[in-house]
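A further point concerns the way the authors explain their paired sequence and structure data. Each protein is reduced to its one-letter sequence and a matching series of backbone shape codes. An entry of this sort, consisting of the sequence and the corresponding backbone structure tokens, reads as follows:
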Amino acid sequence: MSSVPTAQDTAPATAGAVFAAVDIGASSGRVILGRVTGSEVTLETVHRFPNGVVELDGGLRWDFDALFGEVLAGLAAAARVAGEHGESIASIGIDTWAVDYGLVNAAGELTAQPFSYRDDRSRAAVAPVHRKLDPARLYGTTGLQFLQFNTLYQLATERDLDGLQALLIPDLIAFFLTGQRRTESTNASTTGLFDAVAGEWATGFLTALGLPKDLFPPLIEPGETVGTLLPEIAARVGLPASTTVVAVGSHDTASAVAAVPAGPSAADAETFAYISSGTWSLVGLELDHPVLTEASRAANFTNERGVDGTIRYLRNMGGLWLLSECQRTWAAEGHTPELTDLLAAAAALPPGGPQINPDDSAFIAPDNMPERIRATVRHTGDILPDNPAAITRCIMDSLATGYARTIADAERLADRTVDVVHIVGGGSQNRLLCQLTADTTGKKVVAGPVEATAVGNVLVQARAAGHISGGLTELRRLVVSSHELQTFSPQLSRL
């Protein structure tokens, strides 16, 4: 379906090349046209579609066939809109969530719809994996935060992998567009099978787990070309077969962090923390080398690869999934308050109410979220009223407290001092969450851009095409000049 342009959307000033960003999250997806000049980047959303897990073949899976159909519909819409403006699409970049994969056989066929990380199948694989690979050894090589759904635990549940390759979701989409099999490095770094220092596959871990050494395709870096469109795909979407698919930060957080408006100088970049706030919250720092200490492992921080070889030193926390699942439950019960009204009512409640641990595994699977939150509070000996405003405030307070704790831990573990916190993604529109984050951290919070992931995706494509140049500092300067940002100062009296 076509969408109404957002506040960021603009008509092109002049005809020329544009870039198509395929940006898919765990609950929705979009195809966006990005236009880049020497002073700004603008976005036009041409197609939006829902995404979500489905019960299929005995588990929670992604309907990849439907997802890919939406990608093609979005690219066709992008081609049509670009053509109406006399523009041509220079390239396509793809980003999605991390860790999940599809298995493809030698004939290029997907053997089954990919499992979702929300399926519980990998829980039983954790102990057997750790018997073969000591957790301290795993962390010392991969620097990856322990999460039971990490790719290596999912793969440990698979059987008969000979002759198959695992393609992470953005790489799977790129394969069906181009016929080329590659693994983009920022997403590879989330698998638990990637060497954080060497920047290569940890093939010894594959061997230790009895997995084929060539299970994943070769690595590719953001900015490199994956391939050109297959003729049948090009004909279907109305684009030339010469249209390239370019690797971007295919882990959506990598693209989002590339678009953090962190200031014009490298010195500024050393003093910021970021929160990529959406279904999940990715909270951390940008570093030039991984932190692989035992203290870092004990704190469950991850070292994931970013654009231009940076390290995204972060903790993966619970996010606005908690609220969206509550809204889904309330809607099923016939109660559908507007989000703005819900947040206003929550903001009007006094501080100091009950909180939960948003990282609790009890909140991973879809179910009656309001009751699970209230049950968790009851277990602490507290009481949470059964009304949407109180539950929403509990979620917001819990996330903000978690953000403050995580940023303080990151400062300590990486020996950094943070002056400003940048919140990007959907959560940057949530004024209550932004203000509570400023209050709990005691730091200035800068909110925006909302579509940071798509902006980062487009900027990497534009640089690869030679339309802009420079490193992350130069890319971020374009973000600052292109977006209205909101600033929140700590109000300690609110705590």
The two ends are 43 Å apart (CA to CA). The first strand starts at residue 17 and ends at 24.
